[in-house]
Write a structure and sequence with these properties.
Helix 2 runs antiparallel to helix 3. The chain has eight helices and four strands; from the N terminus they run βαβααααααββα. It has about 170 residues and is of the alpha+beta class. It starts with 12 loop residues before the first strand and ends with a helix. Strands 2-1-3-4 form a four-stranded mixed β-sheet, with helices on both faces. Helix content is about 55%, strand content about 10%.
């Protein structure tokens, strides 16, 4: 059987530079859900970490996301954390572990991951890459080389992302 699906190799990628203690990122969830519903697997949505110093639990939350992703529930965990940023602000790491338990994940493994720092390099690499490309706040979207800053305003961002994705997908058909 021949592989006649070159489109698979060129699936558009939307990098979402996010911080899991950020209210603006929580506000962006509706747009991200809409994009996932509209495009499904025709658009790769990647959560990239950009923890901000002003949120003291953001770095731990980024590491916890990576553990959730390793356990197969990254986006579900990110949405759950963002939906409860106030609790994260109040309770910190114990909240991250309890949330993992609520989602049916291996909470003990989360605890161990936060202690041993096994995901720190991923978070650090994302943050360094974000800084290198000019990310200064969250959420920031990068698609097809274009950076869209959602930290100032979400207004019109989903529409702009859709324009770019539609253009990229149309280019695959030709």
């Amino acid at each position: 059987m021949s592989d006649s699906s070159p489109a698979r190799a060129t699936t558009p990628v939307l990098d979402v530079w996010c911080e899991l203690q950020c209210p603006d990122c929580r506000d962006a969830l509706d747009d991200l859900r809409a994009l996932r519903a509209r495009y499904g697997d025709r658009l790769e949505l990647r959560l990239r970490h950009f923890p901000l110093e002003k949120h003291k639990h953001a770095f731990a939350a980024a590491q916890a996301f990576e553990e959730a992703a390793e356990q197969g529930r990254g986006w579900a965990y990110a949405e759950a954390v963002l939906g409860r940023v106030e609790e994260l602000s109040r309770a910190g790491e114990p909240f991250l572990i309890e949330l993992a338990r609520e989602l049916g994940l291996d909470a003990e493994e989360f605890d161990t991951a936060l202690i041993d720092g096994r995901h720190i390099l991923i978070v650090d690499a994302d943050q360094a890459e974000g800084k290198a490309i000019g990310v200064t706040g969250t959420p920031t979207y990068v698609i097809d080389g274009e950076r869209l800053d959602g930290g100032k305003s979400q207004e019109g961002l989903r529409e702009r992302v859709e324009e770019i994705v539609d253009r990229l997908l149309a280019g695959q058909d030709g």
